[in-house]
Design a protein that fits this description.
Layout lengths: L1 E10 L2 E11 L3 E6 L6 H8 L7 E6 L10 H4 E4 L11 H11 L5 H9 L15 H13 L5 E5 L7 H16 L3 E6 L2 H7 L2 E6 L2 E6 L1 H5 L5 H9 L6
The structure holds adenosine-5'-triphosphate.
Adenosine-5'-triphosphate binds next to strand 2 and helix 1.
């Protein structure tokens, strides 16, 4: 479970996240949505111990990231595409991460298979398409068989077939009882993938609930979002 409570993060005089609170429950895919600059990455960075909050807490399985004993076995995360040494093969890249985190080498082939990269195991990362890079990131996130999975913009760069594949993969992870948190600015795509949506804008929560509930009488979630956030008399 992920529990964000009263989270505030400022950069100088700019408040990127302002008193944000929500939970992501096990067995459920939670979509964390908002336009560019809404504060999603800031929230995830604090959650994953890469940044310190000014106020509030961001807990994973009841603890801040810094207090997790074997973090790679608790939370799998990939914040952006990249990070892989481009001259390494996919398998060597994952083996390096496994070693750095004290994870069994046998997991490498398991996760390659899970993300459908078994035939690209010996391909160098520099030859990967964006979609293959997304799969490799996901494989890295799953290496520690974590109970909590956090993915930033997981469908970016995927073609329709890749998006369908990602949808069924994250569904499988949630059905196994894991907590899955996906951040994205692609509202309508997330409305199809997630069971529960958390929508933020300018660092504050603007809506939370099941996709159908949030879409309400609007043609799409994106329309509902603009109706929520566009000031009366606005565009
Ligand atoms: N290190 C930083 N220093 C100063 N301002 C920052 C920093 N990181 C983020 N911000 C600002 O905080 C706000 C929230 O940014 P954040 O990256 O969290 O948004 P986001 O929802 O993830 O957007 P995107 O989808 O574009 O990544 C933005 O106004 C951004 O300019």
């Amino acid at each position: 479970m992920i529990d964000i409570r009263g989270l505030t993060k400022r950069y100088g005089r700019h408040t990127a996240v302002d008193g944000l609170g929500f939970t992501a429950e096990p067995g459920r895919v939670t979509g964390f949505l908002g336009p560019n600059g809404a504060g999603k990455s800031t929230t995830l960075r604090v959650l994953l111990g890469l940044d310190r909050p000014d106020r509030g807490r961001a807990l994973i399985e009841g603890r801040p990231y810094s207090e997790l004993r074997r973090p790679a076995s608790v939370v799998g995360a990939q914040l952006d595409v990249g990070g892989a040494h481009r001259a390494r093969t996919a398998r060597a890249h994952l083996a390096w991460i496994a070693r750095a985190n004290g994870l069994p080498r046998a997991r490498v082939d398991e996760v390659l298979e899970r993300v459908g990269l078994e035939r690209a195991a010996r391909t160098r990362v520099r030859a990967f398409s964006l979609g293959m890079g997304q799969r490799l990131n996901l494989a890295a996130a799953l290496l520690g068989d974590p109970r909590v999975v956090v993915l930033d913009e997981p469908v970016n760069g995927l073609d329709p077939e890749g998006i369908r594949w990602m949808r069924s993969l994250v569904r499988g992870l949630a059905d196994e009882g894991r907590t899955v948190l996906l951040s994205s600015h692609l509202m309508d795509e997330m409305a199809r993938i997630a069971d529960h949506l958390v929508v933020i804008d300018r660092g504050v929560l603007v809506a939370e609930g099941a996709p159908a509930e949030l879409t309400g009488g609007h043609p799409s979630l994106e329309d509902a979002f603009f109706a929520l956030t566009t000031p009366t008399g606005g565009a």
